[in-house]
Amino acid sequence: MRNFVIIICLAIFCSACSNQIGRKTYEISTAAPDIVTSAEMRWNGDILFTGVYCATAPMPELATKHTARMYSNNRIYLGTVYYPNNLMVAVAFSKFPKSITSEEHIAAQFELNSKAFASHSIVQPDQHHLSLNQTDFGSTIRLMHKNIEAHPEGGPFPLIINTYSTLNDSFQSMAVRQIFARDDDLFEVAAIQTKPEAGFTVSEAEIESQLNSFVKDLTSSLQRCTRSMRERIKTSVGKRPFKYSFSR
Fold it and tell me: Out of the domains of life, which is the source (predicted)?
């Protein structure tokens, strides 16, 4: 039995997309061809959305696939990198109104998440953890979840967070997420590991350490590369063209 609990929506500029308890559906509006790696076709991990961000995925030599999708009429971008043993790493972004600063927007997101987590913790304590930290892009929300779905109904992780309502403490999955902003772009870097495959033994502490490492490395790469890119590229006012490219 599943318990649809928390939806963390990046497109906060859309009034229907505010954080809420309940169910929401995200539909793909545009998709790039998937990159599937093999021994003959290695991917170097470079990911880019023209004029918005660039980064290098952690341990690209281990990646098996990379996907890039736009949701909600091209308002939300999500790029996902797949690794062996049920590990996924994702980058998402959307825009928010220029009438508020990035720090104000992160503060509002933190408050919304705090209220949602407080309500949920009454039913399932210790399943979600929330903190406010600092990265190179300023205030950054860090979230950790246990026993959430890697492939929820209605949309992809981390746009939707669906929890399992298990009656015991058995491990199903763990996820680590970071949300931060620059100018009027809201970013999220997230990683999720579901229950390892049979024959693969790893502790929850080891899974959490790996997830933290992947999210930290990808966040650092994104912020470092994006800052350099913004110094070279003057982005136009208004809608950005839906363009992104990959290197193999």
Answer: Bacteria
